[in-house]
Amino acid sequence: MSHVSSLSRDVPLLERYRQFLPITDQTPIITLHEGNTPLINAPRLAANLGVRELWLKLESMNPTGSFKDRGMVMAIAKALEAGSKAVVCASTGNTSAAAAAYAARTGLECIVVVPAGKIALGKLAQALMYGAKLLVIEGNFDQALDMVRALAEAHPITLVNSVNPYRLEGQATAAYEICDALGDVPDYLALPVGNAGNISAYWMGFQRYHAAHLVESAPKMLGFQASGSAPIVHGAPIAHPETLATAIRIGNPASWQLAVNARDESGGLIDHVSDDEIVAAWRDLAALEGVFCEPASAAGVAGIRKLMREGRGDAGGRYVAVLTGHGLKDPQLAVEQFTVPAPIPAELDALERVLNL
Ligand SMILES: *Cc1c(COP(=O)(O)O)cnc(C)c1O
């Protein structure tokens, strides 16, 4: 069924999907073993949501803990091919982690610009450890993106945000993997929407596989923005986007029109989910399926739940939810959801008393 099933799991992503990627004889095949992420069945969560079949694409299992590695390995390979010595990006955290890692791996200089106070701790740690030049601005992601776009125009520095077309090419590989794993397309693909590159990349990927006759149809794309950061849903940019899901705290998505095309061409939708709905889905993913993703990643599952609740879902459908990033990126927000118990004496009877045994 899969045209790649005979190849080793150790084959680099750029090699495995070479025929669908903009790779030439001059493109260096770099890798940190990105991609090839698990697609796991989630029957307990499916029952909870009221859908027949739910699969989770664990993009958290990429080398820097998010799907950004798929696009970054392609963008960095093309930057190297072009002779670039430095790359720059604006980031809500995961793009900077991925850019810094692949830049370190290949000896490029990496500059990252992030909004003050809105980066999850794990992501900040990654950019610093991978040796990026970190700049923190008194502004939000949208302003950071405007700045780095202007910087890359004025200087010989390669922009590796998702406005770099190679990013979307690399990210489309996740759609190929889902088709290869299922031997078909799902009915629905649900995912968070921030800068809107990922929904656009998936749609491009599904269309390509369809055009290559590797699958017989394409899924409906279900994108979800956070209610406080939902410019596409409202049809206008948002100057001060807010949400605890910092990875999708974006008020003016760069791939806005591509995302709208993905929505309309697939017969899908782009809707919004509240922070409370995101947190509930985030906790259910961990507690019902043992899958700890970051808050933004839960927006797809929160969205499926909203559609089912409002009678707009498809109980008989086969859903794939993309879990875009790892839960350990933002442990602080997780711990804040709970009350950590006060210490007890280090004695068996104290333990038994607390456990009512
Ligand atoms: C980047 C990111 C998103 C948003 O993806 P876009 O391509 O910007 O829409 C969602 N979740 C996580 C964890 C991310 O890192």
Average pLDDT, rounded to a whole number, is 96
Number-wise, the strands total: 10
The chain-level structural class is alpha/beta
- Share in helix: 40-55%
Detailed description of the structure:
The protein is α/β, with parallel strands linked by helices and 357 residues long. It is 41% helix and 14% strand. It has 15 helices and 10 strands. The chain has helices at 13-16, 43-49, 68-81, 94-106, 121-129, 141-154, 165-171, 173-182, 197-211, 231-234, 256-266, 275-289, 299-309, 331-335, 348-354; strands at 39-41, 53-58, 86-90, 109-115, 133-137, 158-159, 188-192, 220-226, 269-273, 318-323. The strands form 2 sheets. A 6-stranded mixed beta sheet has the order 1-2-10-7-8-9, with helices on both faces. A 4-stranded parallel beta sheet has the order 5-4-3-6. Strand 7, helix 9 and strand 8 form a beta-alpha-beta unit. Helix 3 crosses helix 4 and helix 9 (197-211) crosses helix 11 (256-266). The longest helix is centred in the middle third of the chain and has 15 residues, at 197-211. The model has no long low-confidence stretch (mean pLDDT 96). The protein binds pyridoxal-5'-phosphate. Pyridoxal-5'-phosphate binds next to helix 9.
Quick overview of this protein structure:
By secondary structure, the chain is of the alpha/beta class. Helix content is 41%, strand content 14%. Helix 9 packs across helix 11.
